[in-house]
Amino acid sequence: MNNFEWKADNAEETIGFAERIASLLEAGDVITLEGDLGAGKTTFTKGIARGLGITKTVNSPTFTIIKEYQGKMPLYHMDVYRLKDSDEDLGFDEYFEGDGVTVVEWAHLIEDQLPLEYLQIQLFYDNTSGRKIILSPKGSRYMQLCKELF
Ligand code: ADP
Ligand code: MG
Hints:
By secondary structure, the chain is an alpha/beta fold. It has helices at residues 11-22, 41-51, 92-96, 140-149; strands spanning 4-8, 30-34, 66-70, 74-79, 101-105, 118-125, 131-138. The protein has a single domain (4-149), classed as P-loop containing nucleotide triphosphate hydrolases (Rossmann fold). It is globular, with a radius of gyration of 14 Å.
């Protein structure tokens, strides 16, 4: 229905696709990433970073929860996996409404704290290096963005 599907044959294609998305992002945009361990959430985030002109290496922030990078605008990279049994509120709103782009791995674990509108992205294994990437825009801003992409 309102979902958009993309196939990536390898990690470099996932990064390239994310880079294209990044070129359409604005400050205050939020992307949520879902998918099993190793599906490619952090790899996808590397592409977003590249697209934002960030040259520092992006690694999984599993233990720090949030990492910030400076590019064309800031990238706030969150991995909330560790919060799964916690009600911890790290002031996510300030990031979501901030001056940069926020990417949240395992975002469903903080579903109650997500903004009303965001771009939900799910990554699924197709085979060893293939991934199916499904974009589900929440809100008109992200629907528009998807239409520009596809
Ligand atoms: P996650 O953050 O979802 O746990 P990572 O991005 O850390 O996953 O790891 C994904 C691993 O799978 C990386 O080693 C990456 O190189 C590899 N990989 C292979 N094919 C792909 C693909 N098409 N897209 C993304 N990653 C891929
Ligand atoms: Mg990860």
